[in-house]
Specification:
There is one protein chain. With 663 residues, this protein is α+β, with helices and mostly antiparallel strands. Helices cover 56% and strands 14% of the residues. It is built from 22 helices and 15 strands. Strands 1, 2, 3, 4, 5 and 6 form a six-stranded antiparallel β-sheet that branches. Helix 19 packs antiparallel against helix 20.
C-alpha cells in the first residue's frame, strides 16, 4: 500500500535571534517582578515566581532544545494546574476554608489568595507553557494556544481599566503583563517562518476557534459581574434583615416599657422596693440591654433601681435635674407634663453611651404623675445583642450615630473589599449599622460557575481548532490521493490495483480492517425505508488508561480484538460493524427493532467483558453502548445517530459497562 508524506507544521529548534532576545527580556522582567514582590513593593510573589520559571524554561527551549526545558516546564505546569483546580472546584467538594488552612500551614497568617496567582494571568501562562510543551506544533494546537494567550493578555489590560476591582484577583501587575507579552512575542517570532507557508490552512482553523474564545471571555465577564452582584445583594439582604430585627427589638422594648408603667395604675400607693424588684425583674430578664429600670420621684431623685448591682446602686439617690442635665428635658416631660420623654444619645451615669426613656407613673384615681419610670438602654449592650447573631469569622460589625462609633465587633479574619450599610431607627434616633464581610466568607460564597464556563469555553475553542485543522489535513490528503490516482491511470493494471487499495482505505479502518464511518453512512443511506433499522453506538470505557499504562501497541491490539468481536456478534444478525475513530465503534442492524437491537447490544457487551482483555489494574475491559431504532419510513440519519449518541451519554453517566436504549 502506497504511503504519502505531508510536512508537519512545527518549530522544533527555532534559531531566531529575535526569539532568544524576547525570551531574555521576559526573563529580565520576571526577575525584576520577583525582586519587587519579594520585598512587598509591587505585584504578587507567586505570579512572579511562575513567570521567572516560565521565562527560564522558554529560554532553555530555544537555546538547548525542547527536551532540556522540560525540567522547568513540568513543575510550572503542575503549580498552575493546582492553582486552576482551586479556582474550579465547587465549594461543597473542597471548601475554601480548607485551601486557606493549607495556606496557613505553609505560612502562618496567609490565605489562599496570597499564594494563588490571578486568574487571567494563570490561564495566560498556562496557554504559553502548553504551546512550548507541544513543541509549537500547529497540528497540536500551538497557534490557538498563542491566540488564547494574546486574548487573555488583552483581557487583563481591559480589567486594569475597570474602576471597581472584583472579589477574585484577575490580572497581574503591569510589569507581569509586560513579561507575559515578551514571552508571547518570543514564541510568535520563533514560529512565524515555520507557519507562514501554511497560513491559509491555519487561518481557516484558527478564526472559528478564536471567535469561540472571544465569546467565552465575554460570557465569563458577564457571568462574573452578575454573580458578584447577586452575592452582594444576598449579603445586603441579610444585613438589612439584621437591621430590621434590631428595629423590631426596639419597638418591642418600647411596648414593654409602656406595659410596665401602666402596671402602677392598679395600685394606690407609691411602689415599694419589693414590688418594684418583682415587676422589673421580668422585663430586665427579657431585655438584657436595659441597664437599669429606676423609679424617679417628682423631685427627679432616683428612689428605686433594678437590678441592684454595684453600678446601679452608686446612682441611687441622684437628682437627675442636677446630675444629668442632658436628660433634663425628657425627665421634665414625664414628671411635669405626664407624657413620655426620651433623651438623645447621652453618657449614662453608669458610664457608656445610651438612651433613657422616661414614662410617667400614675397611681389609681390620680390625674397627675406621682413619679416616672426610667429605663436606661445601653447601646453597647444593645449592639452586642445584635452582633451575637452573626459569626465574627464572617462579618465585622459597627454601630454609628453620625460619625461617632457607638459599638464595634471586629472580625476574626481578613476583611474583604465590600462595605454594607443599613439604617436603624432607635425611637426616632437615626443609627447606621455598618457590616464588612471577611474575604474568606465572600470567596467561599462566590459561585465557581463563571470560572468553570471560561475554562470550558477556552478548552472547546482549542478542540474546535484541532478538529478544523485535522479536517484541513484530511482534505489535503484526499487531494493528494486523487492526484496520484490520476497519474496511475496510464497503466491499467497498476491503476486497478491502486484504485482498489484507495477505495478500501477510504471505506475501512486500517488498524482493525473494519468499515469506517463513510462505509457505515453509505450503508445507512442504502437502507430499505420499508423496514425498521437500529444503530448501536459503542465506546470503550476508560480506553485512555490502556494507552497510558499498557502502551499504544497494546491499545491497538485491544481495538483490533474489539473489532473482531463486534463483527462476530453483529454480522450474523445481518448487520454492519464499523469503527468511527479512536475507541468508538458503530453498528447498523437493518430490519431489527428495539428489542432485538438491545439483545444484540447485550451480547456484544458480554462478549467483550468476558474476552479476557484487562486493564493494568486487572479489571476487565468494558464498553458502553447507546441504542437507537428508526421506524419504517424516510430515514433521518443525523437524528438516528444523535439519539444513539444521547443514549451512549446516559450509559456513560450511569456508570458505564451497559447498553442504553434511547428514550
Amino acid at each position: 500500500m502506497t504511503s504519502y508524506y505531508f510536512p508537519r507544521l512545527t518549530s522544533e529548534r527555532p534559531v531566531s535571534v529575535w526569539a532568544i532576545t524576547a525570551s531574555l527580556v521576559s526573563l529580565t522582567g520576571a526577575l525584576i517582578a520577583l525582586s519587587l514582590a519579594a520585598f512587598g513593593l509591587y505585584g504578587s510573589l507567586p505570579a512572579a515566581v511562575l513567570l521567572a520559571i516560565a521565562a527560564l524554561g522558554q529560554l532553555a527551549w530555544y537555546r538547548l532544545g525542547p527536551a532540556s526545558s522540560q525540567a522547568l516546564l513540568w513543575p510550572a505546569m503542575g503549580l498552575l494546574a493546582l492553582c486552576l483546580v482551586s479556582y474550579l472546584l465547587p465549594e461543597h467538594w473542597l471548601p475554601h476554608a480548607a485551601w486557606d488552612h493549607l495556606a496557613g500551614r505553609l505560612l502562618a497568617g496567609s490565605l489562599l489568595v496570597d499564594w494563588r496567582p490571578p486568574l487571567l494571568l494563570s490561564l495566560c501562562l498556562t496557554a504559553l507553557l502548553l504551546s512550548l510543551m507541544v513543541r509549537t506544533r500547529a497540528s497540536l494546537g500551538a497557534p490557538m494556544l498563542l491566540s488564547i494567550a494574546a486574548l487573555l493578555l488583552l483581557a487583563q489590560a481591559v480589567e486594569a481599566l475597570h474602576s471597581a476591582p472584583g472579589l477574585l484577583p484577575l490580572r497581574g501587575s503591569w510589569l507581569e503583563q509586560a513579561t507575559l507579552l515578551t514571552l508571547l512575542l518570543g514564541q510568535v517570532v520563533g514560529v512565524t517562518g515555520a507557519w507562514k507557508q501554511q497560513s491559509f490552512r491555519l487561518s481557516r482553523a484558527l478564526w472559528p476557534g478564536l471567535g469561540l474564545a472571544v465569546l467565552s471571555l465575554l460570557f465569563w465577564h458577564h457571568q462574573k459581574d452578575l454573580s458578584e452582584r447577586q452575592l452582594a445583594d444576598r449579603i445586603d439582604q441579610q444585613h438589612v434583615q439584621m437591621a430590621e430585627s434590631l428595629s423590631r427589638e426596639i419597638q418591642d422594648h418600647l411596648a414593654a416599657m409602656r406595659r410596665f408603667a401602666n402596671v402602677w395604675r392598679l395600685v394606690t400607693t407609691s411602689p415599694g422596693s419589693t414590688d418594684w424588684a418583682t415587676q422589673a425583674a421580668q422585663y430586665q430578664r427579657d431585655f438584657r440591654y436595659f441597664l437599669n429600670i429606676a423609679y424617679i420621684d417628682t423631685s427627679s431623685r432616683i428612689q428605686l433601681v433594678h437590678p441592684p448591682n454595684a453600678l446601679n446602686l452608686q446612682v441611687l439617690g441622684s437628682r437627675l435635674f442636677e446630675d444629668q442635665p442632658a436628660g433634663r428635658e425628657a425627665v421634665t416631660r414625664a414628671l411635669r407634663e405626664g407624657t413620655e420623654g426620651r433623651t438623645d444619645i447621652i453618657e449614662l451615669l453608669q458610664g457608656g453611651p445610651g438612651v433613657i426613656h422616661y414614662l410617667p407613673v400614675f397611681l389609681a384615681a390620680e390625674s397627675r404623675p406621682t413619679g416616672a419610670v426610667a429605663m436606661a438602654v445601653s447601646l453597647p449592650v444593645l449592639a452586642d445583642t445584635l452582633f451575637a447573631a452573626s459569626d465574627p469569622e464572617a462579618l465585622q460589625l459597627s454601630l454609628y450615630h453620625g460619625s461617632e462609633r457607638l459599638a464595634h465587633r471586629p472580625a476574626e479574619a481578613r476583611l474583604g473589599p465590600w462595605q454594607l450599610e443599613a439604617e436603624l431607627d432607635l425611637s426616632g434616633i437615626p443609627l447606621r449599622l455598618l457590616a464588612e464581610p471577611t474575604l474568606a466568607r465572600l470567596l467561599s460564597d462566590l459561585p465557581r460557575q463563571p470560572v468553570v464556563s471560561l475554562t470550558v469555553g477556552l478548552l472547546l475553542a482549542q478542540l474546535l481548532y484541532l478538529v478544523l485543522f485535522s479536517q484541513q489535513q484530511m482534505v489535503n490528503q484526499h487531494r493528494a490521493v486523487r492526484r496520484t490516482n490520476h497519474e496511475l491511470r496510464r497503466e491499467i493494471r497498476k491503476r486497478t490495483r491502486l484504485q482498489q487499495e484507495v477505495e478500501w482505505l477510504a471505506g475501512h479502518d486500517e488498524l482493525t480492517g473494519l468499515p469506517n464511518r463513510r462505509t457505515f453512512l453509505q450503508a445507512l443511506r442504502a437502507h430499505d425505508p420499508r423496514q425498521p433499522i437500529s444503530v448501536l453506538l459503542c465506546d470503550i470505557d476508560h480506553f485512555k488508561k490502556i494507552n497510558d499504562r499498557l502502551g499504544h501497541l497494546e491499545g491497538d491490539r485491544y481495538l483490533t480484538e474489539v473489532g473482531c468481536l463486534g463483527s462476530e456478534v453483529v454480522e450474523p444478525a445481518g448487520g454492519l460493524f464499523a469503527r468511527l475513530g479512536g475507541e468508538e465503534f458503530v453498528a447498523s442492524l437493518p430490519g431489527r427493532g428495539a428489542g432485538e437491537a438491545m439483545r444484540i447490544a447485550e451480547a456484544l457487551r458480554t462478549a467483550i467483558a468476558t474476552r479476557g482483555l484487562i486493564h493494568a489494574d486487572g479489571t476487565p475491559l468494558t464498553i458502553s453502548i447507546g441504542v437507537a431504532t428508526g421506524a419504517p419510513g424516510p430515514l433521518r440519519v443525523d437524528d438516528l445517530l444523535n439519539a444513539a449518541d444521547e443514549a451512549l451519554y446516559c450509559a456513560k453517566a450511569d456508570g458505564r459497562n451497559q447498553a442504553r436504549l434511547s428514550g
